Sequence to fold (288 residues):
Amino acid sequence: MTISTDGHQGLSHFSEADSVNVVNARMDAAAHPRLRQVMGVLVSHLHAFAKEVQLTQEEWDHAIQFLTATGQICTAERQEFILLSDTLGFSMLVDAINNRRPAGATENTVFGPFHVDGAPVREMGACISLDGKGDLCRYEGHVLDLDGNPIEGAVIDVWSDNADGFYDVQQPDIQPKWNNRGVFITGPDGKYDFVGIKPVSYPIPDDGPVGQMLGKLGRHPNRPAHIHFLVKAQGFETLVTHTFVGGDPYLDSDTVFGVKKSLIAPWNRVNDGPILWHSPFDFVLVPR
Ligand code: BEZ
Ligand code: FE
Fold:
């Protein structure tokens, strides 16, 4: 560090060439070490980004306006920042970093913004579709450990869109509360079994800044048809995943990059009274 003629240390004043060091030198040495690491690297990459693209003042203004609009559209039900993270592949990257799993374990995928805590616990075999719309499907399988042993007491929290492509929380005045949601708890055989609908593909909410961004980039806003599962069991890592309907036209271009080949499940046509589809899938958990 140099001392200048006016008595200031060299890192006190900003310079383009030394911008990262100048900013990071301001952090108190006593700040939390992890915070120092994360913020230091963030500043380093942010400055490198601006230097690499030679960011213009207009582009900086535009970015500030975009982030402001992203915040302003957020409500308790609408999380535009998560949509931004999802559509930039950032949610899936963070998910991948934090959920590396051994072969045979069920893979994680993006959580999404539509999970609601407190869905009703339902009896095995119950139907979660409350609006009478869509093709009924029986979902069935086991929660297993890596050796194929059943896991008792696993809590399976399920949610899907309705046949019009909306979650209940997106249409509180139209859909019954808890439509296409439920919690199931496995017995000693680790088995689960419930009736829902065959989900349909849908666009993520695209009437805000993220939708405008996608449009300008020539990207569509659609997700392939899927049903969400959050599986928890004592002594095991929590699984956040979906199963995807094979053959969906958006499987190779999911706008949030959530598709993994191992999560494309069978949807077999059946003639079981009003139930038209059967989708078997086992969830394999990793010990904690
Ligand atoms: C979802 O699958 O519910 C979802 C995931 C990411 C963004 C929007 C929706
Ligand atoms: Fe979804």
In short: The longest strand covers residues 136-144. Residues 1-8 have pLDDT under 50 and may be disordered. Residues 2-55 form one domain. The pocket of fe (iii) ion (ligand 2) is lined by residues 112, 114, 223, 226, 228 (CB under 6 Å).
